């Protein structure tokens, strides 16, 4: 008796892949199209800065602590700290509830425009400055 492997139908549970987290590189590529910084971007940034600082430290040792190499080492360390601070701050802003866009319902578009003070044309008149 000869058995052959038949493909399972698409509706069977064996045909659907388990719900897994995407790997590092798919997250890194996806972050290009999404606002903010996900964990893959932060990890790539930290690893890159770590190895850059390690390389500059080795170069500073090999050049007998050349002032130019030490300057580059200091600038790199400050840039890493500034980037880490920026990521923390932008994460705080993204998680604030008042940072969400307002909900727009279909029936209230005209009412909300009138309530905000927009006229028929939707622009406010700008008066020129008078010279003194």
TrEMBL record:
GO terms for biological process: vacuolar proton-transporting V-type ATPase complex assembly. Keywords: Membrane, Transmembrane, Transmembrane helix. Residues 7-20 have a biased composition (Pro residues). Residues 114-125 have a biased composition (Low complexity). The keyword Protein biosynthesis does not apply. Pfam families: Pkr1. GO terms for cellular component: endoplasmic reticulum membrane. The chain crosses the membrane at residues 40-62, 69-88. It comes from the Eukaryota. Residues 1-21, 97-132 are annotated as: Disordered. This is SMK killer toxin resistance protein.
């Amino acid at each position: 008796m000869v058995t052959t492997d038949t493909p399972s139908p698409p509706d069977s549970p064996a045909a659907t892949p388990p719900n897994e987290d995407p790997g590092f590189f798919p997250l890194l590529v996806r972050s290009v199209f999404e606002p903010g910084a996900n964990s893959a971007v932060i990890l790539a940034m930290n690893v890159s800065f770590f190895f850059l600082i390690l390389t500059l430290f080795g170069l500073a040792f090999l050049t007998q602590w050349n002032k130019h190499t030490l300057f580059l080492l200091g600038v790199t360390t400050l840039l890493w700290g500034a980037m880490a601070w920026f990521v923390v701050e932008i994460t705080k802003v993204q998680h604030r509830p008042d940072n969400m866009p307002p909900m727009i319902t279909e029936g209230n578009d005209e009412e909300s425009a009138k309530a905000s003070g927009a006229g028929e044309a939707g622009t406010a008149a700008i008066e020129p400055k008078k010279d003194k």
